[in-house]
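Reviewers of the previous submission asked for a worked example of the structure-prediction workflow described in the proposal, so we include one complete record here. The input consisted solely of the amino acid sequence. No template or homolog information was supplied to the procedure at any stage.
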Amino acid sequence: MILGIIQVRMGSTRLPGKVLKDINGMPMLLRLYERCKMANLVDKFVISTADNEENRIIREFAEKHGIEYYAGSENDLLDRIYQTGKKFGARAIVRITGDCPLVEPKEIDRIVKFHLDTNESHDYVSNNFKPTLPDGLDTEIIKFSTIEQVWKDVQDPFWRELALSYIFENPDKYKINNLE
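From that input alone, the workflow returned the following structure tokens.
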């Protein structure tokens, strides 16, 4: 399964609660979810959030709108992504950050198509190493087996909080590609 994960939490310091702010009559998170669902090559999109009290409103939002979710560690983002993928049986994960409401479904499909067309031979494929699109259109796909290996091997809290950054900061260990 190609699983889309919308990584989201309430803890914004610059604009508190931004993920549920109204954008033209719709909460930003719902707008983002609806845009993501327009991608044709992702089997399912789910929300991945933290299990603390501050993020209860996101879990309630997901339940109200019939969106599946996983709630895990606030600070160990690597664990949260891994556990979300494990819960939903991911073969690969498309990660979307919750503060990009104008994500482009065709761009998601372009990244996933490359992943599939290359027989899933890359550990990590993204379009943001050399940004050639406007900010907010960042898309990445990661093999779940790669996430699982990083989850097992990396114990440093710094890297676990940055989640997948460890992969692209270690290009000698992983097969990485950037689509411009």
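The helical segments are 28-36, 56-64, 77-88, 105-117, 144-153, 157-161, 165-168. We consider this example representative of the routine output the project will generate in years two and three.
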